[in-house]
């Protein structure tokens, strides 16, 4: 990122006393650390995004920190989270990737009334799936997320993979002025019709990083969360071979990614296990080269001088226990094609941007703008309990991470070629002119959002609702 990559390092210490003890052998995260009751306050604040020697950045934050506090809860146990709104505008919280009741999904006007300034809302749900999830607003999403409102939500596995340490990297992208403050201009329609609001500064856990301290021979689990508005990342771990063990919180067949690159669109998560087989006292770059001309070093793995903990990678198994996802019946599944349309270089047949007003995108020639609102007619009505294949056909010149609320789906194929490694997701990255087939069981009744998680694309029309209803179901 060169001169535009602002800031200095202010990383938290790598090892606490308990983590130091963990270096003696593999450990499993203690489920006793997870709490089922939380309270978070939404308010304006300041964060040292670019280091302690530069002015703090004015942000909007959960509990005064960016990203918000990492919430850890237990799989299959009821959760209660009170959200206090201290902003001067409405907000909500969407628990991204959690399969929960529609009334807890955080979409204003569709699943709940917005949380007014000075008011609170209690979110209550029981997470059926373990994994890496996150939370963010679904009201004025473009600006609220772009000013810092995001946090990790970890649902602990009952039998996690044995590792020496676990790291959570919540990666955020900021557009900062030279004085370190957030630049205005949210909702620029020219950007919305292209790749969205890309920043000039990338942070991990709220700071511009330079190093991640590691020790030779240790095995580390890293939970990667892309909480950016629009930045797509392709991460390469120089000199290392990350093993993917989960995608969007859902376990997959452990595998080394193709060409060693972890492709991570906005809202996507990938859990990796990394055996630190580098040389003591040496540094190795983690590079984002999604755009080869703009590639930059996100962070360096900085080995200390201590001798290796172990000389060879452990042979301990890396497979996570499967979550209780319903398996779609592909033979009986009904196919629904969803065509992604519009954007710069793709407006023909849509009347042009001038005639579309605030809409630059559409799904099946239908545009829904904003964050969701009461009275939005569903793009399709699905039968409760039935299996469906959604064929996402990207007729545009741009990438789209497509997210379905309330469900996880099996990623079946890309341009007709089967997708390996038993991959499930809630957000799938669809390349320009690519067609992706995903399958799921419509087992969660309600009006569920389907939208691009490049937030400018969502608010400029690349959004719809799928209504799931059937005998005995309730929607609102």
Automatic annotation (TrEMBL):
Keywords: Capsid protein, Cell cycle, Cell division, Metal-binding, Oxidoreductase, Virion. GO terms for molecular function: copper ion binding; oxidoreductase activity. It holds the Pfam family Cu-oxidase_3. GO terms for biological process: cell division. The keyword Zinc-finger does not apply. GO terms for cellular component: outer membrane-bounded periplasmic space. Residues 55-159, 185-284, 376-468 form the Plastocyanin-like domain. This is Multicopper oxidase with three cupredoxin domains (Includes cell division protein FtsP and spore coat protein CotA). It comes from Enhydrobacter aerosaccus. The lineage of its organism: Bacteria, Pseudomonadati, Pseudomonadota, Alphaproteobacteria, Hyphomicrobiales.
